[in-house]
Amino acid sequence: LPLPSPLPGPRGDIVNTFGGQPATLSLGAGELSPAVEERLLGLAEGAHATFDLPSGVAFGERNPDMVQWLARKELDSMGDPQERYDVGEVIHLPTPEGQFAAVVQALREDGALKLDFNHPLAGQPVTFEVEIIGVL
Fold this sequence. Notes:
Elements: H1 34-40, E1 48-53, E2 67-70, H2 72-78, E3 90-95, E4 98-107, E5 113-116, E6 126-131
Antiparallel strand pairs: 1-6, 2-5, 3-4, 4-5
């Protein structure tokens, strides 16, 4: 299943597997948002589709409560105390369920980070282009 690379491509792609190794996805496993899964359900092998999702539908609306300061002491307890962070960097924090990603929005002199835990595409309109190359 080719999907729209972590680096923006010529079309502003976020993820693009066209021309590369196709993605393997399990519908209903929580790998994709329900809105995306809904549009993939029922597509047959060989189907090629493009669909537009309005702002907030694919990855939810931006939630200002998910932007929070995290003290350096807390960061150090979760990882390498020598680690340096930059604005715009995506960091991964451990949770009981695995890891949670956040984008560094600001740094304070005391080492605290202002982190945005929203999905980077939250509140954005999203266009998905897919080609189904096989259904298991």
